[in-house]
């Protein structure tokens, strides 16, 4: 099953659905059922595959069109931990030897965007800036994931946005 989060046109509420393999049809799982509206809530509900298939049989199928905006598969993860240099072609592109241990790096959860994300107005949504002290273990940086808590943050946000 291809699970998606999406918005309907003129509606800000996140919805959960399943898209057909060819991407032309969508079934809203969160409509008229006890299924959560977002992926994180859905995962915590722990439905079995047979329960989901039963709900899909009774659900309305719609054509994918401009009335739907796909969101990232999960919009509110606690952490996004990635592994770098994890395939040979990438190592060759970077003129690096394949690592003997995984190389971790992180992404921020607020940087997630759906497949149709628009970056042209990104700075319109910046409220302000804060100052933080990075106390990363430099000898482990780029080789291992950071430790918690290693980012002391000031208690104020400066509204200096553009």
From TrEMBL:
Entry superkingdom: Eukaryota
Which Gene3D superfamilies does the record cross-reference, listed alphabetically? Fumarylacetoacetase-like, C-terminal domain
> What GO annotations for molecular function exist for this entry?
hydrolase activity; metal ion binding
Coiled-coil positions: none
Q: Which UniProt keywords apply?
A: Hydrolase, Metal-binding
Q: Which Pfam families match?
A: FAA_hydrolase
Could you tell me the Gene Ontology terms of the biological process aspect for this record? Answer: small molecule metabolic process
Q: Where is the Fumarylacetoacetase-like C-terminal domain?
A: 79-117, 120-145
Query: InterPro entries, from UniProt?
Result: FAH (IPR051121), Fumarylacetoacetase-like_C (IPR011234), Fumarylacetoacetase_C_sf (IPR036663)
State the similarity comment: Belongs to the FAH family.
Name-wise, this protein is Fumarylacetoacetate hydrolase domain-containing protein 2
- Please report the organism this UniProt entry assigns to the protein: Eumeta variegata
Which gene is transcribed and translated to give this protein? Answer: fahd2
């Amino acid at each position: 099953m291809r699970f998606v989060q999406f918005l309907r046109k003129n509606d800000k509420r996140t919805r959960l659905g399943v898209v057909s393999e060819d991407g032309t049809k969508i079934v809203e799982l969160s409509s008229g059922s006890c299924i959560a509206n977002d992926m994180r809530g859905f995962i915590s509900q722990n439905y079995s595959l047979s329960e989901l298939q039963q709900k899909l049989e009774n659900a309305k199928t719609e054509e994918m069109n401009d009335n739907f905006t796909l969101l990232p598969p999960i919009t509110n993860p606690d952490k996004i931990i990635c592994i770098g240099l994890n395939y040979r072609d990438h190592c060759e592109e970077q003129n690096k030897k394949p690592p003997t241990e995984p190389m971790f790096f992180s992404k921020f959860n607020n940087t997630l965007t759906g497949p149709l994300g628009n970056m042209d107005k990104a700075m319109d949504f910046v409220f302000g800036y804060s100052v933080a002290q990075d106390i990363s273990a430099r000898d482990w940086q780029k080789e291992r994931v950071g430790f918690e808590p290693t980012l002391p943050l000031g208690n104020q946000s400066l509204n200096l946005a553009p």
